[in-house]
Amino acid sequence: MNNIIKRNNLKVNKVTINNDVTTIDTPLGLFDIKKYKDTRIFDYLLSRGFIYIPKIIDYDNEYILYEHIDSINYDLEEKAQDYIKLLSLLHLKTTYFKEFKENEYKLLYDRLKSKINNLNSYYLSLTNSIEEKEYMSPSEYLLIKNISIINSALNYTNYELDNWYESNNKNNKKRVVTLYNNIDINNMVKNKDITYLNDFSNASTDSPIYDLLKFYDKYYDIYDFPSLLKIYEKNYKLLNYEKELFYILISIPDKIIINNNIDSIKNIKKSIDKIYITLRVLNSEKEKTSKTHENKDN
To answer: Which of 35, 99, 140, 190 can bridge 195 by disulfide, Cβ–Cβ 3.0-4.6 Å?
Structure first.
């Protein structure tokens, strides 16, 4: 770190450390320094025309020095919309099709099929065990009361996964993008002059749905996801096989562990609420698809 400071002739008056970012106060202004495993990610993003990154001053094999910007505070709904727009632009600018030697879809299908089957067995065993009891605990009662919606989610994902694989098992390529992989709307910096995504240290390459999946898992109960997806798809429209897989992935229910305490009840309720919220998301997509077909027919 000292090398990059010396190379840029910066006189440091004050140092502030916030997690893995070091902010230095100099006569030339504030700068951030962060350690990166691969600083070449910024060269790649700029080469693909994605400009929504920090203003980089210098970097070497380990550290990057960039201009410090204090982000403004504003409405979280609007902030989520700005964030999803940047995510869509990142995916748009870095997209390409990748061929694979092994049948990657078969591997994914087998993994998800196994997960769904294991959850089916788990909930069947758990239900039988609870129903044999003379008295249920509050956690057990809450689960049994909602076991039908859990089973419906498992049946839906099992059926849709089979359909998805049947349609795609002969495909030997998929669309990939640079995934941000650091899903948190607070990682977006915005002021009156600039908006950018901060911290690309976890960036990777895979299907665009995985950034959306992480966003959904983190914010499904906070933001209106169908509205945000609509904003996303104005810049970067998901392909049918991508969207189908995304809806399968968000519909797989959690494995609920029964512990007879207050936290257990909260966790069960949160997992069940997520299933109902996801059901509304699926119904919203179904209505949108239905309207699209009606408009085409007319």
So the answer is: 190
